[in-house]
Every structure is written in C-alpha cells, then in structure tokens.
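Our consortium's second objective concerns turning raw sequence data into structural hypotheses that experimental partners can test. To show how far this objective has progressed, the report includes one record in full. It was chosen at random from the queue rather than selected for favorable results. The single chain below, 138 residues long, was entered without modification.
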Amino acid sequence: MNSNDIAPCGIDCINCEVYEPNNRRDVWQMFAERFGVTAEEIACKGCRIQGGCSIHKDCETLECVKAKKIDFCGDCSEFPCRKLMPLAANAERVPHNLKVYNICRIKQIGAEEFLKESSKNREYYFKGKFKIGAGPQL
C-alpha cells in the first residue's frame, strides 16, 4: 500500500469495487455494460497511475492537483474548495463525502496509516448510525 492507492481528492482507491487489484469482475462487467466498453476498460489502476478514474473520465479535481503540482488536495492553500464539498446526491452509494475527512486524516497520520484504517472508515460511513456530538456508531 502506498499513496498511489489514494486519489489526490482523498478517495481510498483500495476500497473501490472497480480498483483492479480487488478483482471484482462482476462489478466491472456491470459498468462495462452500462458504458458500452469492456470489463478490462473499467478495471481501474487508480487515477494517479492511469491519469483518471475509469468511470469518471473528466475529473476537474485531478486536473487541478496536476496543475498545482501537489500530491493531495490538502496540500493546496485553497483546501477545502467547492470541488470537495459534501453533497446528499448518491451519498448512500458513493463515498464522495469522505474526501475532506480522508484528506484531514492523511495530513494527521500519513497516507500509509490512513490506508490501514480506510476500510473501517467506509464501514462507518455506509453502516454507521449518526449520533449528534459523537460521530458514527456501529
């Protein structure tokens, strides 16, 4: 595990179903049929390696990070910006609202330690119950 396993925006690629090392051919095939491509074209090596996500082709955040020559959005003087703003849309299916939290954790404990805890963070996000003032509860 290394920083190539984390997108510049903070999304933890290693926990994504289209991430190639996770070998989720059933998911690749589902997306392939939706987008009219092959399953192999959906299998993602991570946006740092292949220059963007295999599903979300035009990522303004990735282009911004490249233009500023930084590793993570958290390295930017404008962090957090609107590109990372949490939204209710698709929040029950997609972990996009974890970006700012993830970037803050990466800054706090480093990429390698963050990757060790990232799958648990997703479990809290998707299965946890919200308790005001206490954060997610499983």
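The partners drew two points from this record. DSSP finds six helices and two strands in the chain. The mean pLDDT is 91. Both points have been shared with the crystallography group to help prioritize constructs.
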